[in-house]
Fold this sequence. Notes:
The structure holds 2 protein chains of 2 kinds. By secondary structure, chain A is an all-beta fold. Chain A is built from no helices and 12 strands. Chain B is mainly beta. Chain B has strands spanning 4-7, 10-13, 19-25, 31-38, 42-51, 54-57, 64-66, 76-78, 87-94, 103-104, 108-112. In chain B, strands 2, 4, 5, 6, 9, 10 and 11 form a 7-stranded mixed β-sheet that branches. Chain B has a 4-stranded antiparallel β-sheet with strand order 1-3-8-7, with no helix packed on it. Chain B is globular, with a radius of gyration of 13 Å. The N and C termini of chain B lie far apart (36 Å). The chains are: A mainly beta, B mainly beta. The A-B interface holds A 4, 6, 9, 31-32, 34, 36, 41-46, 49, 51, 90, 92, 94-96, 99-109 and B 4, 31-33, 35, 40-45, 48-50, 58, 90, 92, 94-102, 104-107.
Amino acid sequence: AQSVTQLGSHVSVSEGALVLLRCNYSSSVPPYLFWYVQYPNQGLQLLLKYTSAATLVKGINGFEAEFKKSETSFHLTKPSAHMSDAAEYFCAVSDPLEGGSEKLVFGKGTKLTVNP
Amino acid sequence: NAGVTQTPKFQVLKTGQSMTLQCAQDMNHEYMSWYRQDPGMGLRLIHYSVGAGITDQGEVPNGYNVSRSTTEDFPLRLLSAAPSQTSVYFCASSYRGGWTEAFFGQGTRLTVV
């Protein structure tokens, strides 16, 4: 069975600092991986996804993530945080052998605070 | 395009009452899913559907029913509401395939008293 672990339920950074949100997955086969963002009282919006085409994936709003099979990781980064990045971020996995995107397994989320 | 539309946005129920959360998508997606979001728990899959007439259980199906009579609609029924079902419910839809993006509705915040 798949699982996703997000290290750190809360991360706080200063405006302009590097953002690093950690995600590790457990899967029997190389999975499809997603990062979603949720702004307060909103639904989830896709930031980026890994589907085996390239290990370094660029997403919206300046975010990117790198798939590292040896470390079973898919950490999310942004070089310079902006106040508008304050939100909750979810890592999710889809197992090609167990179904598609109708059965996403989510991590517990990381709430990002950006301090002025 | 409206995308994924959920109604209502807010609901308060008394213990034992039943209700249906509505979800509709206008993107002709084959896959639809219901998740619940609880603080510190992330999103957990309740039920999902891979096409009209086909549904299956997710991680936390107890107390919920679904049906999929059309491609567009995927209602979630609470049979007899319990305080443990207080949560935010999200409906999602996507094209066939594990690599495809799931589109989410704005959520329904349900309180059971």
